[in-house]
Amino acid sequence: MKTINQIILGVLSCALLLCSCDSFLDQDVPQGILSGDQVNDPLYIDNIVISAYAIFISAEDVNSSFSMWNFDVRSDDAYKGGISENDGDVFHQLEISQGIMTTNWNINDMWVRLYNCLSRVNAAIDALNTMDDSYTLKAQRLGEMKFLRAYGHFLLKRLYKNVPFVVAPNMTEADYKALRNDTYTNDESWQLIADDLEYSYSVLPATQADKGRPTQASAAALLAKVYLYKAYRQDDPASHAVTEINRDDLQKVLTYTDEAIYQAGGYGLEEDFHNNFRPEPQYENGKESVWAMQYSTNDGTNLGNCNWSYGLMVPGIEGVTDGGCDFYKPSQNIVNAFRTNADGLPYITDFNQKDFDAATDNADPRLWLTVGIAGFPYMFNPKYIMARTHDWSRSNGLYGYNVTLKHNVDPDGGYLIRSKLWFGSPMNRIVLRYADVLLMRAEALAQLGQNHEAIELVNRLRNRASRSTAMLAGYDVNYGAKIRVKAYTDDNDALARVKMERRLELAMESERFFDLVRWGEAAEVLNKYYMEEANDCRIYSNAAFTANKNEYLPIPHEQMAASNGHYKQNIGGW
């Protein structure tokens, strides 16, 4: 496995090898070595920029998806899935918070892949800095690259907490060898990410012709997320406990979730929640997509830049998707969370007292748009009615019979692509969507005691959910669904309601585990979840989440060994 020094110094010590361009740009990118004259040519500079974008597609993998679904199996939203505990055993260890080793391949693999991305981005930034102001796009392209650098560091920090930052210009071999992962406090490192984004926000335009490029609103949304994480201070070197919720950071969240920023770029809520998870061209890059990874199958490359990162999630429907691996299966806990009472409201504190029963229970329509459940159509296609059979559970029920819907496509719709091993599709992955912006703002408002304003934002999403029934036509008559969701009529328990709405709206979008860690609630919530699940699911019989350890991954052994003693291992007795 590569160390960070090998990854980044490899880019510095040899010419940049440019890869094929992303789907959102039509031009071909030449391959080969860049001379001194070429590196100052705007055409070649933009090719280096394209290369930096491209690696965020080409560097990810079914086992190391930058969506982070592989690591969200630690949450109460999802089971690992697959055929057994031994199928992806290192992810089984993450799922039960036991047996995790610093030598596990998946822990080092994600580290390597993300620093590969950062090496490509930094090469572009250094090249851009050589250009004079006659290159009119210099500031904008620097803003785009600093956005990507912030995004890469953001993903690393949520996973490992204490990571080396590669932000200095024109770093030498000696600079890389001197990198440490404890140079900055937790708060300072969040600010370092924010600094890149502050620059991006100041120079990026409100709109971009190339949809994959970030806009000013994209920078604002990621800034809001960074400041929201920063607000929950975890700077005690002996623990991962939240020691303070900083009001100044929360005010920054409000600044960067101001609706005017997003209106300027044409962003807002889709009329129907489900539109965010459709592969058809008329739905991709819709107004709720503040920034998305662009995938395709028609750009002239081998199967295009297809989205293979969800390739393990397809169920193995006999004669249709034989070989589907059936990973990342929605938990019974998340299904139960969508239950609603007679007033169309979630139960919040006692939702898991009973399992959802479609014959008797009301539910938020987002349940059927998020989770495939036995007795209902798979991907809204009545040809495929889900059942408690092997087709819908490769493990024969060990991981239940639910299937994720947000990541899959209708097998008959023309968007399911099969390679020798995996399934893919051209469906974009929305990284930042406007619903998340509203929820971040609502959370900051609730923490600041502005409960009425927070609930108003929550109700915007609940009202949108009530209108999101186009794909569920006939579900009541044909399948017995009891669809019921209403807005809140008072401002009570605002923070708890915001947190619950965040779970429902973003279910299976790989935010849940990181939210629990950010709030300082992971140990309490997950140990309760393990205890409840152990009654029905034997994989949790030995599960136990250790506070001040399992919130973050260990620094990989290979990186520790190659750091010349400059890295410190995360706390927790790894």
Alpha-beta classification: mainly alpha
Number of DSSP strands? 15
| Overall pLDDT level | 92
Low-confidence region ranges: 8-34
Q: Strands of the biggest beta sheet: in what spatial order?
A: 6-7-15
- Computed over alpha carbons, the radius of gyration is 23 Å
- What distance lies between the first and last C-alpha atoms, to the nearest angstrom? 20 Å
The percent range for helix content is: 40-55%
Major sheet size, sense and barrel closure: 3 strands, mixed
Q: What is the general shape?
A: globular
Question: Given the structure, what is the number of helices?
Answer: 21
Beta fraction: 5-15%
What would you say about this model in short?
With 574 residues, this protein is mainly α. The protein is 40% helix and 7% strand. It has helices at residues 4-13, 36-39, 42-58, 69-72, 89-96, 105-129, 138-160, 173-177, 186-203, 216-231, 247-256, 259-264, 332-337, 366-370, 434-447, 451-467, 475-479, 494-505, 512-519, 522-534, 557-562; strands at 78-81, 232-233, 244-245, 289-293, 327-330, 339-340, 362-363, 371-372, 377-378, 381-385, 403-404, 417-418, 423-424, 429-433, 482-483.
Describe the protein:
- 40% of the residues lie in helices and 7% in strands.
- The protein is mostly helical and 574 residues long.
- It has a three-stranded mixed β-sheet with strand order 6-7-15.
- Helix 9 packs antiparallel against helix 10 and helix 15 runs antiparallel to helix 16.
- The chain is globular, with a radius of gyration of 23 Å.
